[in-house]
Amino acid sequence: MGTTLAQTRPGLHAVRPALRWGLNHALPRGAMTLAARGGDLHSRLVVGIGPDGEDFWRLAEEVRRAGPLPRSRFAHVTASHAVVREVLASPDFRAGVAVGPGGPLGRLAAWAQADAPMGPLSPPSLLVSEPPDHTRYRRLVTRVFSVRAVQDLTERTREIAERLADDLERRSRTEPTLDLVPAYCALLPVTVIAEILGVPAHERDVVLRLGSAAAPSLDLGLSWSRFRAVEAALRDFERWLTHHLEQVRRAPGEDLLSQLVAAQHDDGSGGLTDAELRSTAGLVLAAGFETTVNLLGNGVALLGAHPEQRALLAEEPERWPDAVDEVLRLDPPVLLTGRVATRDTVVAGVPVPGGSVVAALLAAANRDPEVFADPARFDVTRSSARDHVSFSSGRHYCLGAALARMEGHVGLETLHRRFPALAVEAGGRRRPTRILRGYDVLRVSPRAGCVPGAPAR
Ligand code: HEM
Q1: Which of 9, 17, 378, 417 has its CA 20 to 30 A from that of 82?
Q2: 51 CA from centroid of ligand 1 (Å)
Q3: What value does the mean pLDDT of the chain take?
Q4: What 3-state DSSP class applies to 276?
């Protein structure tokens, strides 16, 4: 239907973005805002929380008290560690919470989506693919993002962290307090990602600018002007990536993107398609912008508030990997995810009809007292910290988990070793995002007792 209408009436092209915005942002936001006013738990969680809104942790405990899988107006919702894991692993659920293909609304949505720019939540993104496509595609990508590849990146990440710490040290001579988010927490992961994607040094600024402009694409309820700006940035990024992939094909380097381009199935049936390559690269970039920056910021804030834990880490630096998992457990960069039931099913004794949405509160599962003793306490010696679900679970388990853990370890360890008396100032500001949780502004005084250029450990 879309092609015919668009061909006969070219003006309809302009209608598509407006419809996309309406269906994906304005409509759900309006409906949920109304439901939230009426007390609907899930809607309060999706549109009500934020720096000036409701507190996520209080709402999460309300969900826990309401049972393992309470039903809300638009979705079931769960704070239970066991139920989150069951839903994420179940073949009865799929990822991607878009309007279904059936019915007039579904057809309208499919038409509106036809000329949408590629984004982290649009097919063929891994995040919204399911078996058998997901299995085939993920196997190839996993081979490249292996533990070995992450080990190879560790030394380079250390060098980047040390260089950023040098810059902080220089700046702190004239600026007693500075905002650590742009100066360190964001710069470390984006520099690593630029290396993974083999972005030439002279193009880095352009790509980083496009990446930050496109970053809000995961959020629900964007304003019209923000939505237009995000779509424009996504298109520019796709154009850059298409060109970059051509270069990589012509002259492959040592980077992971070059390896992804070359990756082939064992049976010799080819590798990733162009669309899959662009989508993976886009997702890796988005993940770097949106998540690891939060892990570093949340970690600095937690350690700043718990000097005794920091002192322990200074004495026993081998505890850093566990400390990173404890930060991920207690203050995770991604609060929740969603799944749609593909058929009628039963979870934790609750009937879930096909087509129902389940909101899995990853952050609340991380504080499930059935799994974590005294769950709200920050304890870098907690032996079960790694059981958190901050990287999701099941077949969509984060592809970048090893990379994110390594960056978290190197980033936090380097910072606290170079600035042993780093003080976190009052007035940190959370990002206005709802699904993602991190700091927009985190002012620190690094100067107190900095150790210039200490060797990396
Ligand atoms: C602390 C940092 C990170 C956190 C908390 C995080 C969290 C997550 C979560 C929760 C999911 C699954 C969402 C769902 O089940 O619906 C996911 C998937 C994914 N992440 Fe991460 N992520 C992080 C860093 C990264 C990095 C650095 C990369 C870069 C390689 C990355 C790449 C991906 C990809 C490609 C997927 C899709 C996997 C699939 O659907 O099969 N992530 N991540």
Answers
A1: 378
A2: 24
A3: 88
A4: helix
What's the rounded Cα separation, in Å, for the pair 385 and 369?
13
Over residues 312-330, mean pLDDT: 97
| Mean pLDDT calculated for residue range 239-246 | 90
Question: Residues enclosing ligand 1, CB less than 6 A?
Answer: 95, 126-127, 138, 145, 283-284, 287-288, 291-292, 295, 332-334, 337, 390-392, 396, 398-400, 403-404
Q: Which of ligand 1's atoms lies nearest the C-alpha of 338?
A: 16
Expressed in angstroms and rounded, the spacing between residue 263 Cα and the centre of ligand 1 is: 21
Identify which of 153, 197, 398 to mutate to test ligand 1's pocket (most ligand atoms within 8 A of the CB).
398
Q: Does domain 2-445 have CATH number 1.10.630.10?
A: yes
Residue whose CA is closest, atom 35 of ligand 1? 399
Please report, for the chain, the start and end positions of each structural domain, with discontinuous segments joined by +.
2-445
pLDDT confidence bin for 457, thresholds 50/70/90: very low
How far is Cα of residue 160 from the mean position of the Cα atoms in its chain?
22
pLDDT-derived band at 97, boundaries 50, 70, 90:
low
> 276, 243 in Cβ contact below 8 A?
no
CA separation, residue 109 to residues 15, 114, 115 (Å): 12, 9, 11
Residue 424: partners with Cβ closer than 8 Å, 6 or more residues away:
300, 301, 304, 305, 442, 443, 444
Q: Please indicate whether residue 44 or residue 205 has the higher confidence score (pLDDT).
A: 44
At CA 23, angle to CA 52 and CA 117, rounded to 5?
A: 95
- pLDDT > 70? residue 345: yes
Residues 6+ apart with CB under 8 A from 231: 17, 116, 117
Mean pLDDT of the 327-342 span: 96
Residue nearest to atom 43 of ligand 1 (CA): 398
Calculate how far, in angstroms, residue 392's C-alpha sits from the geometric centre of ligand 1.
8
CB of 303 within 8 A of CB of 419?
no
**Letter for the amino acid at 108?**
L
| % the chain with pLDDT above 90 | 60
Residue 178 bridge partners (DSSP)? 444
Contact 325, 388 (CB under 8 A): yes
The tokens of 306 are what?
């718990």
